[in-house]
Design a protein that fits this description.
alpha+beta, five-stranded antiparallel beta sheet, about 55% helix, 2 domains, Alpha-Beta Plaits
Length: about 170
Amino acid sequence: MKKEDKGLIIEQLGQKLQDFPHFYLVDVTGLNAEATSSLRRKCFKADIKMVVVKNTLLQKAFEKSDTDYSGLYGSLKGTTAVFFANVANAPARLIKEVGKGKEIPALKAAYAEEEIYVGAENLEALCALKSKNELIADVVALLQSPIKNVVSGLTAGNKIHGLLDAIAERNK
């Protein structure tokens, strides 16, 4: 590969690192062409950008970035695919779904929610991360809960007041 081509690839990887807030380093060693195509289709459906890269070029893109990715350097061994995503837990859920009963694809490391996760043992924790929309929905549900309790209490209060008035009238 020519030096100019390598420079262009490093620049493109650097741009993707800026464009996507979350990415996963995945070991795809042993995947044949059919399995790789299937994985790419599933990534596309999940709105994940899958790029198979040379480890040295990815490390150079990491080094040129403003963010410190040095914790990921040890994971750059073997065949590496990078899953770029806008939702932090989407690649983890995809890896878990595709890898049921298999070791391929295996999580090497991830950069999600501005944290570095190294090792496949972090897959469950990454699956449990909530997206921005899920967090907003949780907050809205928590805010609505007390309001619903107050409204139902007020509604029931009118009924209780009416019953008490009826009992008072009967006792007169």
